[in-house]
Queue: 4 jobs
Job 1
Amino acid sequence: MHASVLSAVQLAVTAGLVGWMLTGFTHLPGRWLRWRMFCRARFTIITLDGTRNGRTEPVNPYRYLSPGSFLLSPERLQAIITHLTRPGGYDRIDGRGRVLCAQGEQPIEVIDSVVR
């Protein structure tokens, strides 16, 4: 192939890929991050306070995720809270935050160590 034909093919393929990627990241009504990796993921952004022996201190649930992991679903958050409230741990954990998912943003609460 001539260099100009190869260059034209590369340009067309690149433009097609860029167009495909742009449409993959556009918003659908009522949705955010349409890309397949994000459409099933749920992110939890939350602030927690743990009570132990009558004293309250901040709790970082992200510290208990696997290295390199940043997705914290409500189910995973409940598992972490259950682990932290075992005997010898916190008496209770409370907090408020937001869950981000394909359906949008929703409030989340932790009351008396239960995710609601």
Job 2
Amino acid sequence: MPGKSQRAGWNEDEDAFQPLPTYMELAMAAAVAHEVPPASPRPGLPGLSIIEKLVAVGIVCLAFYGMALIGCGLFLKAEAKRTGFITQRMMSAELQQADFDIRFPAHVIN
């Protein structure tokens, strides 16, 4: 078999020479390869002005401040309730002329 190539699947179309690319084609291919992808839309509040964004940030800050005040109020209520229980136990112990120690519960006699 004269003229048979060593690689499998060889045909005469692959043997034909292709024209080399021109400088213009090479430059366009390089430009396309280095193009920057289109910028994605900015996250956040894109349609609002600076003043509107400041107002929105102010509202969020006030909401957090309100939650902090509510938390402080609930803490103070719990402290007052606990202090009330301790004060009540102290008063009852004083009326009974007994020693009062907040670490141990009072002995109740039925």
Job 3
Amino acid sequence: MDVSRWETHTLLATEAEKSNKPMMTIIHYQLALAESQQLEPIRGTRDELEDLLTIKVVSCHNLADFWRKNGDSDYELKYLQLASEQVMSLIPQCPRKECDAFIETLGCCRTALIEFLKRHPNPVIAKQLSHISTSNQCELIAKFRLH
């Protein structure tokens, strides 16, 4: 995965921001975001996929931060929502919407969310969730155990 164009635009945006050139800042942050959306994993390893997600989320957060500094909370929120969507695309979605453990706003059950968060890149967060047993709280997993 070649991230050089993304890095270039991100660095140019940072330099433009330091030089107080808001138009160039937003242009390069937008180009960095566009580059991040075009990136594809080559090997498909977990590390590569995590790097790709990080690049996409960082691009969104850079734009959200830019708009926050410039007093536009509507655009800030839009880019934070886009970052959230990038993360949500990795959480397994569950078709059992009638399940008590289903979280409607996320489209997944608590089990999937907790299992996802157990792999959090921040080891403190991952450790806090490591003791939670999830398989007994999922109707779908329980169904497979019965058969």
Job 4
Amino acid sequence: MSIISHLYHGELGEWCQSRLTGSEEAARRVTEHLREHAIIRPEGKVERHHWSQADRTLALRLGALIQPAPPYSALLGLARAGLVTRSWADAQAARYPTHAPLPAHFRRRALDMRPTPDGWLDLQTMRDAGATVGDDFSSHERDHRRFSRPGLPDEAPLAELFERIRAYFAAHALPGHFGGPGAEKGLTRLCWLLGSFQYAYRNDSVEHPLFRIFRDDAPTVTQLHRTADDEVIADPLALTQRLNASGALSRMRRLAGDPPVGRPWGITNPVIFEHWDDNVFLLNGPNGATLLEVVSLVRADDAHTRGRRRLWKMLTGAWLDTADTFRIRALAVYFARHGVLFSWNLDSYAGFLLEDRDPDKARKEFVALAARLRDTDRARRTAWRETHGA
């Protein structure tokens, strides 16, 4: 089980339920505030993938505002689907501004190299210890890839697509720059494509509508681009525009220390305790960092289980940065369909959820439990691989 699975459906969730007794009241207050705001909804009926696709699209656009990093999960998703090799995906990641200056031996493993405020984390080191973070997939998993074809003919058009994506982002999406209507529409279209590829990293690619285009033959870049038509991007484009118009983007900039256009605000998808979330970012401020999560819920009446879990996830994400690698001192969540950004000082937030019980003791308890569960999962995976020769 992943750390998130343990938090939502296992012992970590049980611990939070019993210790973070102020979370129900905190979730209720958030819900009450959200109900005061109008909600952006897509026009007409949409297919079931639309909601998560719009969420991924917005997160990718925000990620580009924060840091010019590779779309990690999108590239890994293409590899998992069998459309490209892992080495191809690493080569594409190595061309992004964050990773291009790395020494050659690290660029060859670019997707394993993740930035921190002061250096880099190497995911391979974590996998060597038994983690699965950024896994390049076992031979058993390769046998179930959906689109493997001799010669990997999809690599060439996808390489051209990613070259165009990088060029367009370099021209229109410098860190901290929100463009005009035409540029943002183009960026949303490209983020929609990347979000589709991202889907395949943690899900079965055959279920996503975009991957139908790969079933018969390698598509052209034009054919890929046409899948992100004006109708499907209208909703995520509206979410992107609201991010700016609501003032939330300006507040995020201030949380990052108000850097000038072109200077990164922080880190996209930071890896904490062998896990990263595609909707989580780090804003590096002068007095420490803010851990930011972006959600695109339509319904705000989640003051019970779902709302509490989100609050738990934010607090424990900061707690699990046990080496203080990211210097997290504040938490924030942006509700994209409402255009509302909440932010809290970490200590005050912990105190409210714990109802003023000792935060240091609680953190030590939680981290110890998380470490025990992680080690148990590692041992189980190691035993399985030894048994199956994986």
